Give the backbone structure.
Amino acid sequence: MGETPLRVAVLVSGEGTSLENLCEAIDAGRVPARVCAVVASKPDVGGLARAARRGIPAVAVVRKDYDDGARFNDAIHEALAPHDVELVALLGFLSIFEPRERYAGRVINVHPALIPAFSGKGFYGARVHRAVIDAGVRVSGATVHFADDQYDTGPILLQEPVPVLATDTPERLAARVQAAERRLVPEAVRLIAEGRVRLDGRRVEILP
C-alpha cells in the first residue's frame, strides 16, 4: 500500500468500542492507517459520538429508513464515496454491506466465534456466546474475515481461539472473545496496510 496511511472506513451499529480500539492502535503507531469515515446503521449510537470526539467524518444511514437492502447499500456507498476509502471495516455492524465492484476484496468483518461455527444470519452478540455454551463446545474465539454480500461467509484472514470454561456465562465468554477481537482487528488492518495480504479464492496468504 506504500507509505501513505491506508484510508479505512468503519461501519458500526452500536457503541463503537472496536472503532475506538483501532483508533488507539493507530495513534500508538502500530497500524499505518487512518480512519477517514464512520457510518452507523442506527441513529445516536456511541460509535457516532466516538467519531465526533476524534474529528472523524461520521453519518448515520439508518437501516429502518429503507425498505430494502439494495437502497440501504446505495446510501452507504453514497456516504463513503467522498472519502477515497481503501478498506471498509465492519466492526459491530449488524446489517449486510454489499461490497459491489468498488470494494470487492476490500471489506473485512469481525465475528465473535471461529467461523464457520456459530456464524451466519442471526448469530451476533450474546446470541453467539449463548449458542456456544449451550452446544457444550470447549473452544470458541474470534475471526476477522473478508466480507462478501452474505453473513460471515468470506475468506478467513485471522482467527484466535478462546477457551470455553465450565463456569462461563455469555457475558464472561464475551469479555474474553472481545479481548481477542481487540488484538485481531488492528493486526488485520496492519497486514493489509503493509501490503502483506493476498487473496487466492477462498484462501488468504499472509506474506513475510
